[in-house]
Amino acid sequence: MLHQFKPTHTIHTIVIGAGPTGLAASYLLKEQNIPHILLEQTQLVASSWHRLWNNYKLAMPAKKVEMPGVNLGDYIRQDQHPSRDEMIAFFEWYAAYHALPICFKSSVLSIRKSFGNKFIVDTNSATYFCDKVICCIGPRQNPKYPIDEAKIAKVTQTQLMHSSDYQSCANFDPAKKVLVVGSGASALSIAYDVLNQGYMVELACAFSQEHILAANQHLYESSDETIVPTLGFLEEAGILNRGRLIDIVDNTLIFEKESEIAKMVCKDYGVIICATGYQPSFQLLNHLFRYVDLSLTPKSDCIGEIPGLYIAGIPKENEQTVIISHGTEQAKKIVADIMKCQATQTVANHRKFVAKY
Question: Is 2 within a domain?
Answer without folding.
Answer: no
